[in-house]
Amino acid sequence: MDTLWFCLLALMLSTYVVLDGFDFGVGMLHLFVARSRAERRQVLRAVGPVWDGNEVWLIALGGTMLLAFPKLLATAFAGFYLPLMIMLWLLMFRALGIELRHQVEDRLWEQFWDVAFGLASFLLAVVVGAALGNVVRGVRLSEDGTFFAPLWTDFRAAGEIGILDWYTILFGEATAITLAHHGALWLTSRTDGDVFSRSLRVAASTWPLVVALGVAVVATTIVVQPNMRASLQARPWTAGFVFLAAGSIIAARKYRLRRSHGKAFLASCVYLYAMMAGGASWIFPFVLPGRESGAGLTASAAASPAPTLVVTLYWWVPGMLIALGYTAIVYRAMPAKFSIDDAAQH
Amino acid sequence: MQHPVGYVVGDDGNFELESLSALLTNPWALAEYAHTMVGATITGSLVMASIGAFYLLRDSSVAVARRFVSLAVVVGLVASIAAAMPTGDIQAKLVYLHQPVTFVAMEGHFHTTDRAGLVILGQPDMQAQRLDNPIELPGMLSFMTHGRWAGEVKGLSDFPTDEWPDNVPLLYYSYHIMAGLGTLFILVLAISALQLVRGKLWQSRGILWVLLLSLPFPFIANTAGWLTTELGRQPWLIYGLFRTADGYSEQVTPGSVWFTLLGFMGMYALLSVLYFFVTTRIIAAGPEPVGNAD
User: Fold this and answer.
1) Is B288 on the interface with A (CB under 8 A)?
2) Are residues B187 and B275 in the same domain?
3) Mean pLDDT score across all residues of chain B
4) B289 falls in which pLDDT band (50, 70, 90)?
5) HSE (CB half, 13 Å, CA atoms) of A150?
6) CB neighbours (10 Å) of residue A208?
């Protein structure tokens, strides 16, 4: 039962990264792929209907964690207190950028919020990436199973570790670049005109970086994460996620060169899912690995009592079906292309 | 957390969810939900009435402004009555039933009496354990809890002090500010509605001024109501089961909490300034001509 909930939680986290990931990416590229006021509006409209819905997955994730793994929530939210709060501020600032820029028709006002949106999107991608990096790397759990991570110490991924060290910064950078590529593919599939051609150039130039950083992250994880080798020996099939990731990122390039931009974006989604699934399967049975091999908070130790897990499943499944349903409706109801012309009407 | 239901205590002392239907039909949750929604409706109505009154007093956008005020006054009156009866009344009875010590602290009722009075004004004196300068409706508290004037209402001093809410005066004031403002809303909106029905509201500049100035008060009442529930829950995190003192994160240092508290204060200060700036611009610009409200 707790394994099932572990998979569901990993699935929700991955869905959050895939969905909010592309609007983070769009936010990062916003300043570069859109130059004129009309183009800026075109780009914002391409994420306008969905960005806040995408963020709801983060809230749903927190709720699911509370019902299925309350001990994980208690440990991780106290231990990652500072980065989570900083992430919250960035999310607020980013939302302000999107919502307030239309309120006043003034060049300086719009420029300020455009930069706020772009900067907050970039920093969020780095922070989310570094946070995921922390979970994969493991944290120093004390005797009673708690921890508190300082923001940084000496940047070595050993000893007295902080949130940021070379490994998690690498992880954060990889996330930022991967999401920029992901966001560029979203824009190529949903816009036309100059924004489209600039996004296409960004997708092409970031692709080699995505591959290089992806390889670097997987390779360094084997060094840094003490449980990964044991996991791979116990469950060799999880190595398949690496091949799936490699295949899908190559497919993303192939589809982009063939000008099937929708398929290229979907391939990038698969890439993110595969990377997340790989990470999750290598830390399992831990939900929060420790720094020594075999130490950490396991899914079964963190899980709610078994009757609660069963009762909440009846609650979770219909809830998620509704969420999936409206997500599908919103994405279908969106225009297939956002052009500069219909942006100018508003 | 105010009134936990649908759980059993497992062998290891953990709480296990037993009944989803009990959780979803928790009477406390339903009453609090209804009361909160009614509070939101009052807020919306008074904001609309206030902005409408502003345009009317300035003689701009009169047609739209009249529609604002008429709708807001009628809806607001219904909602503010519903805030007291039935939703507020049901909640107060639930507090009396399940959190009796919270109830008497809210009311500022220090000593057990028959014919307990309902306090309108007064300052709780925690040293002397009494209410200074009280103005009260005699017997009303007994009547509201028992349905008769002579029912005994236990006083705060008859409860063990370690079960008292941590900050009795703040709880007392929060509750009285909420209930007092709620009563004033009914009064103001009832007079406005009466004038509206008599067709005299548009000439009553005094009432329009009162509506205009009412803008901040629903926000204050909502905040005070929120404070009342949360202060009233103390010293418990989950009422009767888990104390707040046992529930905080020991790993998070006070220094870190100061860091985020100051950060949030800065963030909200910025938000308030921006909010004020943007909303005053929108209000000053006035409503767009009817029929072109795209």
Assistant:
1) no
2) no
3) 87
4) low
5) 10
6) 11
Would B121 be classed as within a structural domain? no
pLDDT in tens, A144-194: 778 888 888 877 777 778 888 888 899 999 999 999 999 999 999 988 888
Range of the domain at A92: 2-344
Which residue, chain included where needed, has tokens 């009817």? B290
Nearest to A136 by CA among A205, A68, A263, A222: A222
User: What is the nearest CA distance from B103 to chain A, expressed in angstroms?
Assistant: 30
Quote the number of domains for chain A: 1
pTM: 0.82
Report yes or no on B2 lying in a domain.
no
B116 closest CA partner among B158, B83, B86: B158
Q: Return residues 94-133 of A near B (CB < 8 Å).
A: 96, 100, 103-104
Q: How many folded domains does chain B comprise?
A: 2
Phi, psi of B123 (to 5 degrees): -115, 120
CB atoms within 10 A of CB B192: 26
Distance CA B220, CA B204 (A): 26
Helix axes B62-82, B168-197, angle to 10 degrees: 130
Average pLDDT of span A289-316: 82
Those residues whose C-beta lies under 8 Å from the C-beta of residue A98, and which sit 6 or more positions away, are A44, A47, A48, A51, A113, A117
Query: Phi-psi bin for B240: left (phi > 0), alpha (psi -120 to 50), beta?
Result: left
Chain B CB contacts of A314 below 8 Å: 20
Domain span including residue B282: 253-287
Q: Is B267 within 8 Å of A148 when comparing Cβ atoms?
A: no
Q: Compute the nearest-CA separation of A133 from chain B (Å).
A: 21
Q: What is the ipTM of this complex?
A: 0.79
Strand partners for A288: A297
pLDDT digits (tens, 9 = 90+) for A49-68: 888 888 888 888 888 888 88
Chosen for mutation from A311, A313, A316 (greatest number of chain B CBs closer than 10 Å) is A311
Adjacent-strand bridge partners of B33: none
Q: Which amino acid is at B197?
A: V
* Measured CA distances, A264 to A44, A248, A271, B28, B294 (Å): 21, 9, 11, 51, 37
Contact criterion met (CB < 8 Å) for B278 and A148: no
Q: Are residues B190 and B206 in the same domain?
A: yes
Question: What does the alpha-carbon distance between residue B224 and residue A104 come to, in Å, rounded to a whole number?
Answer: 33
Which residue, A141, A5, A136, is CA-closest to A74? A141
Whether residue A177 contacts residue A206, with contact meaning beta carbons closer than 8 Å, is answered with: yes
According to DSSP, residue A304 is labeled: P
Question: Token digits for A23?
Answer: 């609007």
Q: Is residue B140 part of a domain?
A: no
pLDDT in the model for residue A342: 58
Q: What is the DSSP string of B223-279?
A: HHHHHHHHHHHTTEEETTTEEGGGTS-TTS-HHHHHHHHHHHHHHHHHHHHHHHHHH
Say how many C-beta atoms besides its own lie within 10 A of residue A172's C-beta. 23
